[in-house]
């Protein structure tokens, strides 16, 4: 019998599947399920991945200075609305390649720190999607997801996203290069 893992493209394979069920569950939630839902603009596919009570999201604006980051998503409703806006805009874009495959190629989630029933997952994007008009949609940012293991599995409690990738960029907080 051929395993599903062996037929998936490398970018779509869960690197934790065989050895670490907790990290595998977090990877599935933050990579596979998130990409599939985003491409389909299907919030219902991911809405149960969040702890609604107390959820918030910080927007780094792809800027290295945390003094410029904002509490853009004080609750799940604000995040859901922006997620859906972006997903619908994405669906209405004509691409010259499979956008789902391109997002998988650009996405890395290799660092997941678990301490008790809490986790920090470092999801990074570095790639591009070729549009039908010949331009590239550049994916270059990272997000830190803060998760909690509940009776229903791992859930997102908050995140700090749209951070530069790499973070820091070799400058001090005053903008001076190291």
Structure, explained:
- The protein has 178 residues and is of the alpha+beta class.
- It has one domain: Roll (Nuclear Transport Factor 2, Chain: A), CATH 3.10.450.
- The chain is built from four helices and six strands, in the order H-H-E-E-H-H-E-E-E-E.
- The protein has helices at 4-7, 21-40, 76-91, 99-106; strands at 56-59, 70-73, 107-115, 118-130, 136-150, 153-163.
- A six-stranded mixed beta sheet has the order 2-1-6-5-4-3.
- The model is unreliable at 1-5 and 170-178 (pLDDT under 50).
Secondary-structure blueprint:
Elements: H1 4-7, H2 21-40, E1 56-59, E2 70-73, H3 76-91, H4 99-106, E3 107-115, E4 118-130, E5 136-150, E6 153-163
Parallel strand pairs: 1-6
Antiparallel strand pairs: 1-2, 3-4, 4-5, 5-6
**Structural class given helices, strands, pairing?**
alpha+beta
Mean pLDDT: 92
One letter per element, helices H and strands E, the order comes to HHEEHHEEEE
Query: What proportion strand?
Result: 25-35%
Radius of gyration (Å): 17 Å
Instruction: List segments where confidence is low: pLDDT < 50 over at least 5 consecutive residues.
Output: 1-5, 170-178
Question: What is the end-to-end distance?
Answer: 55 Å
Total helical elements: 4
Largest β sheet strand count, sense and barrel closure: 6 strands, mixed
Sheet with the most strands: spatial strand order: 2-1-6-5-4-3
The total count of strands amounts to 6
Given the C-alpha coordinates, what overall shape results? Answer: globular
Helical percent range?
A: 25-40%
CATH C-level class is Alpha Beta
CATH architecture tag: Roll
State the domain count: 1
């Amino acid at each position: 019998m051929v395993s599903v893992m062996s037929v998936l493209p490398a970018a779509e394979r869960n690197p934790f599947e065989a050895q670490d069920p907790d990290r595998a569950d977090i990877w599935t939630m933050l990579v596979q399920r998130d990409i599939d839902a985003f491409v389909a603009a299907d919030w219902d596919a991911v809405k149960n991945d969040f702890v609604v009570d107390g959820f918030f999201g910080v927007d780094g604006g792809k800027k290295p200075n945390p003094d410029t980051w904002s509490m853009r998503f004080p609750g799940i409703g604000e995040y859901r609305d922006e997620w859906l806006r972006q997903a619908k805009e994405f669906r209405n874009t004509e691409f010259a390649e499979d956008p789902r495959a391109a997002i998988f190629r650009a996405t890395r989630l290799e660092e997941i720190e678990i301490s008790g029933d809490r986790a920090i997952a470092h999801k990074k994007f570095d790639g591009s999607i070729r549009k039908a008009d010949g331009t590239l949609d550049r994916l270059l940012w990272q997000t830190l997801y803060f998760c909690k293991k509940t009776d229903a599995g791992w859930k997102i409690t908050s995140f700090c996203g749209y951070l530069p990738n790499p973070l820091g960029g070799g400058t001090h907080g005053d903008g001076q290069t190291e």
